[in-house]
Amino acid sequence: MKRPPVPRDGVIPGVGAYETDRPGFLMAGTARFGDVWQVAPHVHMVAGLDGTRQVLRRTGQEFGAPRGTFTLPRRARREDEAVEAMRIRTLRHGRVGRNAGVLAVGAAELADSWPVGGETEALPRLADAVAEMAARYHFGPDADELLHAERELVRLRGTIGPRYVHLPGWVPAPARLRVRHCQQRMAARIARVVDRRVEVAAFGTGGDVLGELMRACARSGVNPAVYLPFRLVTAMVAAREMVGPAAGWVVAALAEHPRWAERIAVEAAPVLARPDAVDGAALSRLMLTDAFVRETLRLYPPNWLLPRTVVAPVQVGGYELHPGERVMVSPYLLHRDPRYFPEAAVFDPDRWLDPAAGPEKGAYLPYGAGPRTCPGASLATTELVLVAACMAHRYVIRRHPLTPTTWGTFRPTGLRVQCRPRDMGVGAGC
């Protein structure tokens, strides 16, 4: 069986360019060598729909996912099927829609507090806003106690450079230890909230996720103070680390495409007149905004590169891969492939307004695919739609050039925007 093509002398000419423009480098290599090729010794790029789908869907079988920087304590590693099922249900589209008012209020507060006139560094504000929206969705009345607890943890995760990525998990690297200790401190804060609710039997009858998960734990005989905190840490970090950059790309796109921003502003006006009353039916009327967000995530997926390790002999695209080798698949490359998206380099939200004209199944995966699909996809998308709607309705946005960075998440580094009130009348809420 064939092995993936190896560029001349085993090294692609200009490999140093990878650090300058990683997506561009991988796109150029794929165009030159095909959908499966060797980037470096024992490291292969897998592009194209069939190969990408195979790698992601077979994760847990022939392919393994990296462990990452978060590890559950031994006593919390055993999963309870009923509690996990409830955790997934709390993040599904219908459940998010029923509690969208909490998220809409957060998006309105973001727009209300945005500085007008002068230039503003956008990413920190957006990351704080979406993290707060997620905290209120998960923790309800206890959110204030936990607001931005994940900020330092995300900062520390950003200090883990490439040299740590492939070290075995047991290696006590200083950067890893700092992340682990911060993770433990944040989990302890969540555990204190859980313990307090247990003491007063305040699992709640409202819509916050923590109450629902605690009730599921009670039914299964699981200790919620052990089982839930570390899992909720992961959810809060994802809100800041993934949804924050995505919100940055959405705001950047609003500035770059003012006609679309104006259409979104008109669409949003009646829907967001009362943010606290927004529900799933109201969200369904933000069709242009949803298409705009989808197209932004197509061109700028924060989780742009997904690594996997080969754990069993496998063939991909007619090439043989061996255990221990690493493969990379890229939503960024797939989303810009003209085989699956006509005029793939063009920003065109209209492509999402006709369901019959949508992409082939599996070609659009801003939140991954297979068993490692992000469970919070609906929550993240709803946050982004509401941020886009509120910001476009309230402001005309201008921006300066930015620098995309791709270590970790794909983010619009240096995004500075200038907002002035949109002249269409300012009602309640957004």
From TrEMBL:
Heme binds at residue 374. Gene3D superfamilies: Cytochrome P450. InterPro entries: Cyt_P450, Cyt_P450_E_grp-IV, Cyt_P450_sf, Cytochrome_P450_monoxygenase. This is Cytochrome P450. Coiled coil: none annotated. Keywords: Heme, Iron, Metal-binding. Its cofactor is heme. The keyword Nuclease does not apply. Belongs to the cytochrome P450 family. GO terms for molecular function: heme binding; iron ion binding; monooxygenase activity; oxidoreductase activity, acting on paired donors, with incorporation or reduction of molecular oxygen.
